[in-house]
Amino acid sequence: MENMDATVLATSLPALARDLNQDPITLKLAMTAYVAALGVFIPISGWMADKMGARKVFRAAMIVFMIGSVLCAVSTSLATFVAARFLQGIGGAMMVPVGRVIIARSVTKAELVKAVSYLTLPSLMGPVVGPLLGGFITTYFHWRWVFLINIPFCILGLYLAGRHIQNFVEDNPAPLDVKGFILTSVGAALIMLGLSLFGTHLVDGATPVAMCAIGAVSLAMYFRHARQVEFPLLDFRLLRIPTLHASVVGGSLFRIGLGAVPFLLPLALQEGLGMSAFQAGTITCASAFGSLFMRLIATRVLRRYGFRTTLMVNAVLAGIALAAYGVFSIHTPYLLIALIVLMGGVFPALQFTCLNSIAYADIDNRDAGRVTSLASVIQQLSLGLGVTVAGIVLQLSNHVQGHATIVESDFWPAFLVIGLFSIASVPVSRRLPRNAGVELSRGG
Predict the structure, then answer these.
(1) Are 383 and 255 in contact (CB under 8 A)?
(2) Residue 397, C-beta contacts closer than 8 angstroms, at least 6 positions apart
(3) Among 8, 26, 20, 41, which Cα is nearest to 381's?
(4) What is the dihedral of CA 26, 28, 32, 33, to 10 degrees?
(5) DSSP annotation string for 144-173
(6) DSSP notation for 213-256
(7) C-alpha distances in angstroms, 311 versus 125, 233, 288, 328, 415?
(8) Contacts of 51 (CB under 8 A, 6+ apart)
(9) Burial (CB count <10 Å: 0-12, 13-18, 19+), residue 148
(10) What would the pLDDT profile of 344-392 be if each residue is shown by its tens digit?
């Protein structure tokens, strides 16, 4: 449900922007608002799952997500739409991390890679169906319907969660770090939203700078606070574990690059190449087919080459594949575009399987909630930062070239930058021991 929602929205952004009388690049604020909510509420998701039970929190998150979807569908202005997306993000903040906690506590480490691969297979239906469905609805009906399709998925999810998921509760959960929650909430939200407001006409130029400055001070205060308490909300001391460090730090660089694609690619196809939303959707979903193929063979690749080598080599291949999106022009054959996008799904899928699995290679089950909260909040903020970076580079490219509207040649610098971010994760992975995650790869 969540994966499909993201891809549906990305395909519908140009039409949504016209309906709300906004520039398409400004709509990055709607995507960033969602990520800002993730940054605020993911840190407490692990604690809530430990305290109230994973199944209970998981089902409540679905309900919040569904309410946010309905409010998105009835929004009539940018402000109301962004607020509704923030509410959706609260639900998403609980769904994904708590789902990972459930998986981590349900299987042995030897089974974890295979479990993660199985877990992601159903979610791949979102990126496959989402662009097609979003493009079809936007082209032939109305963008508002792309949010209402979440309702039946939510109802089905509530039923399945109640029937099949055990309500894991931690016997003695650590106390909630309230001060840490306030500091991280202010810091993450203000930085993400402040960066998204740069270059827009919505506020004066000083406001985004002030927001980012206040957010940075809040996060700096949190880092100091986290060293002084026994159970900080986000325990950065866990990053001393090499496998978790590679997953979180290296993964964040990779996700900055990949996080821009759902925003940038549909925009390039529609605004740059003049495709309809449905045509752009048929192209965008090709990456999901590439992801599906790689998920099926990921465990065999890891068994043969190991985590360290796979993460290093695959990051370079993924970066090249993403940067290649910048060569698209109105003269590029349709099939060649689809093939390049297909390859742009193959390599990131393998990277995500590696990163998500190796995070749990050297931790105890009791720490699963804390690790999930730390990893998830950094991962999601990285994805949101990718949207922001891509939007800023696109705006600068458009301004430097002096175009009144977005055109084809404005996009290649943004795709080049996101490709470089993906490759920048290589030095972090290189620090892993050669036998890192060997228990996981053997189990896969």
Answers:
(1) yes
(2) 409, 410, 411, 412, 413, 414
(3) 41
(4) 50
(5) THHHHTHHHHHHHHHHHHHHH------SSP
(6) HHHHHHHHHHHHHHTTSSS-SS-GGGGGSHHHHIIIIIHHHHHH
(7) 25, 29, 20, 27, 21
(8) 169, 170, 173, 176
(9) middle
(10) 888 888 888 888 778 777 777 666 667 777 887 787 788 878 888 888 8
How far apart CA 392 and CA 217 sit, in angstroms, is 23
**Chain position carrying tokens 């043969």:** 304
- Closest of 350, 282, 436, 442 to residue 120, by C-alpha: 350
Contacts of 317 (CB under 8 A, 6+ apart): 347
Alpha helices in 268-364 (DSSP H): 277-284, 286-323, 334-358
Give the other-Cβ count within 10 Å of 443's Cβ.
Answer: 20
- 168 Cβ neighbours under 8 A, 6+ residues apart: 49, 53, 54, 55, 101, 102, 105
Q: Tokens 């993924």 appear where?
A: 318
pLDDT of 444 over the 50 cut: no
Q: What is the pTM of this model?
A: 0.75
Q: Are 391 and 196 in contact (CB under 8 A)?
A: yes
